[in-house]
Amino acid sequence: MTVDGFLARADLQRLIDALKATHRNVIGPIVRDGALVYDAIERASQLPTGWRDEQAPGRYRLTQTASPRCFAFAVGAQGLKPLTFAPRESLWRTERNQRGELKFTEVVPPVKPTAVIGVRACDLAALHLQDQHFAYGEYADAYFNQRRRALFIVAVDCAHPAATCFCASTGDGPAATSGFDVALTELDEGFIVTARSDAGRTLADALPLAPVTEEQRGRAAAEHQGAIDAQTRALPGRDLNAALFAQLEHPRWKDVGDRCLACGNCTAVCPTCFCHSESSVTAPDGASAEHVRQWDSCFAAGHSYIHGWVVRGSTDLRYRQWLTHKLGSWHDQYGRSGCTGCGRCITWCPVGIDITEEAAAIVGTPQDHARP
User: Fold this and answer.
1) What tens-digit pLDDT sequence spans the chain (372 residues)?
2) How far apart are CA 341 and CA 120, in angstroms?
3) Rg of the chain over CA atoms, in angstroms?
4) What residues does 244 pair with on adjacent strands?
5) How many Cβ atoms sit within 10 Å of the Cβ of residue 307?
6) Which of 166, 85, 86, 156 is nearest to 124 (CA)?
7) Distance between CA 297 and CA 280 in Å, rounded?
């Protein structure tokens, strides 16, 4: 059962207090170092009221306006990924006793229930893909799972997409439709609150919600359509698997390889990328070591290193690997593309490479690959 109501802007602190009352850490978007980032919050006044983002290929800027809205921006540099798939963590520890025997101990970090406010639809879709990779099947990842189960998600519909956004073309936004506990649709005077989960309905019961008027629903629908209409970028289609693998010798791969720095920014900010490396870190006295997992990138030379040979020895081959996997072979693994249209890889690329432009150059225009 879905429950909804209207929360006045003056009562937003009540929502934060209700989340804290359930002994959760509360995380929300704040302005820090010229960017919007997730961090711990205690007060509604810490949210980025009036801040807008300007995004373009290789460009990100913030400006402040007189708007009363807290979420009048698109996306920051990171989604939910660092909260579930840790950038660096120890998996187990090895110790040698005085008799020279080795003892292996799993490292299980403490996890506190966490509520995240301001999650966009593109990041909810990305979280679902991360769930499919880490959380299901015979070999589910316990480290991911415990953090994932501790999340309470307050989504916020996006009404102000950036110029780099294209979630409408991937079917992943701009409005949140699933994967949340509570969703907010922001209007100038407050928020339409939609509770979806049992925990979300419990939260809604603790809030002073008023009935939602038809006029408010109409304005929300108009803003949703406006956010769709504002998106000027699009992928050529939602399933490019066959089209991409039919173009492995296309000259555009060499062209984009000449421009790409292989820095890995795109994979670091991508909310679905999950490549990682593992290594042992030995203590200075040699008595113990930790087995560490940390984020890696398919743009790194070592990522394709096999027994003295780097399989993808040039940047064009690494870019081809990334794009054909992200937009192509993810369909074989997860039944859909690995791109949710957040546009972060475009914004945070130092040389402004645009995934929608590259895909179109290699496989054709959107008209050649009509969406289902």
Assistant:
1) 677 999 999 999 999 999 999 889 999 999 999 999 999 999 999 999 999 999 999 999 999 999 999 999 999 999 999 999 999 999 999 998 878 788 999 998 889 999 999 999 999 999 999 999 998 778 899 999 999 999 999 999 999 999 999 999 999 999 999 999 999 999 999 999 999 999 999 999 999 999 999 999 999 999 999 999 999 999 999 999 999 999 999 999 999 999 999 999 999 999 999 999 999 999 888 888 999 999 999 999 888 888 888 888 899 999 999 999 999 999 999 999 999 999 999 999 999 999 999 999 999 865 454 443
2) 11
3) 22
4) none
5) 4
6) 156
7) 19
Q: And the tokens for 235? A: 């992928």
DSSP 91-103: EEEEEE-TTS-EE
Q: How far apart are CA 166 and CA 236, in angstroms?
A: 11
The neighbouring-strand residues paired with 55 are 60
Give the predicted TM-score (pTM) of the model.
0.93
- Supply 200's token pair: 């979300």
Instruction: Please state whether beta strands 276-282 and 102-106 pair in parallel, antiparallel, or not at all (unpaired).
Output: unpaired
For residue 278, give both structure tokens.
């593992």
Half-sphere exposure of 100 toward its Cβ, with a 13 Å CA cutoff?
A: 0
- DSSP per residue over 7-71, as a string? EEGGGHHHHHHHHHHTT-EEEEEEEETTEEEEEE-SSGGGS-TTEEEEEETTEEEEEE-S---S-
